[in-house]
Amino acid sequence: MAQLTVDIGGRPGLDCRGFCTYCYFKHAQEVPPFGCRYCLPFTKGCEYCTRSVQERYTGFKDLKEVAGDTLANLQLLSGDLTRITISGGGDPSCYPEFTDLIELLASLEAPLHIGYTSGKGFDDPAIADFLISSGLTEISFTVFAADPELRRRYMHDPTPETSLEIIKRLAGAIDVYAALVILPGINDGVVLTNTIRWLEDVGAKGVILMRFANTTVQGLILNNAPIIEQQRTQTVEEFADLVRQTKAITTMRISGTPLCDPDLGSPFAILEEPELQELLPRIHRRAAIITGTVAEPAIRAILTKKGDNTEVIPVQKEIADLITIEDLKALDLSLLPSTIVIPGRAFVHLAEAEEVLSADGKMRTVLRGPEMLTADGETSMGMDRDSVLALEMAGFSSLINLINQYGEE
Q1: What are 338-381's pLDDT values in tens digits?
Q2: CATH of the domain at 368
Q3: What's the CA gap between 59 and 14, in Å, rounded?
Q4: Measured between alpha carbons, how far is 80 from 99 in angstroms, rounded to an integer?
Q5: Residue 144 carries which DSSP code?
């Protein structure tokens, strides 16, 4: 089995008919390289943490370039091609050579998947029929609301009725996953209920609810907070309650990010599986685990059962993957042992982290932990409970083995 990702390039806000009101990349500033897991040991900054995370593309790639990249990547694959995913910084529906691209990829005779679209670039409902006949089997479609006027106002969709008709046609034939960024007071409440019922009626496969972030603590790391002045946001707990309430009114698959997946019990489904926790290794050495405020209670509960000499310390950032060096600078060094484990995906360069966390004269070793300890709603949407539990068992086993290998005696 082999999967192919086709990157069409594009820039948020520029190659998507304008920013949605709530877009994460709205007001984004150019920032210095963060440092990340892909950086070389003695070099802070790589393509990923300098350009990719900021979606700093020059624009859409022309079709000839995309075709060349696709051919080159095909030659590197082994096994039968089972899936082709179209992605990019811009919105695929706005790609100037979209139909030609689809015809090209359809000739490879593998199921097509569009990783994300707002549909703002589609002005003719017939595009849905074209996509279905071309082999599209799955699409992630930002909906916001089934009310076309709300789409027009908050997504700046020039043809919202057309977009909704396309969703309807696609959902009747293929797997459609709808994404709803929730703006409290705007598309929650009755509006959300009506949207969920409409999506279920047209045949959507699932819905992911996405909490709107408006502060640095909530994850805006591109010097772009706030995105919407004075817009109310939800706490993580309030949002998780909304996800559960939404699941209660529909048979569709519902998940949320940063919390939660009611069907699977994730993130951290292992909390409900004491027998699996017993199978995790015991902790024999000491280390401090740095994480975000969302994950901290779960990680603490799991590791405490495996030993009493590991400290779990949250920084003032909700999502662990979005921790930066500024978060580490705010830690109280007197609380830290000589071995520190940071999240695997944190935007931090290890050499800089060791310098910052050793500023009191006590030399500390900083290690990068597993990339994933659990699955958030975006990841778990395509998983079953056994897959989530397997991921969590592997992640926590790796973390504990790291502590036992490099932690203090």
Answers
A1: 999 999 999 999 999 999 999 999 999 999 999 999 998 888 98
A2: 3.40.50
A3: 8
A4: 25
A5: S
Contacts of 82 (CB under 8 A, 6+ apart): 1, 2, 3, 110, 111
Using CA atoms, how far apart are residues 37 and 262, in angstroms rounded to an integer? 31
Q: Are residues 142 and 214 in the same domain?
A: yes
Q: Is 86 within 8 Å of 101 (Cβ atoms)?
A: yes
Residue 233's pLDDT band (cuts 50, 70, 90): very high
- 374 falls within a domain: yes
Residue 406 CB neighbour total at 10 angstroms: 14
- Token pair in block for residue 318: 């909700």
Q: Please check whether residues 79 and 133 belong to one and the same domain.
A: yes
- H helices of 15-152, in order, are 47-50, 63-76, 98-106, 126-133, 148-150
Domain containing 319: what range? 269-406
Instruction: Read off the pLDDT of residues 375-404 as tens digits, 9 standing for 90 and up.
Output: 988 889 889 999 999 999 999 999 999 999
Task: Please give the structure tokens belonging to residue 93.
Answer: 């529906």
Rounded (5°) CA angle 243-244-248: 115
**Within a 10 A sphere around the Cβ of 4, how many other Cβ atoms?**
18
User: In this structure, are 322 and 375 located in the same domain?
Assistant: yes
| pLDDT value of position 1 | 67
What are 88's two structure tokens? 């990019």
Is 262 inside any structural domain? no
Tell the burial category of 299 from Cβ atoms under 10 Å away from its Cβ (0-12, 13-18, 19+): buried
390 and 282 inside one domain = yes
Which of the listed residues 257, 292, 314 is the one where a domain comes to its end?
257
Asked if residue 190 and residue 77 are part of one domain, the reply reads yes
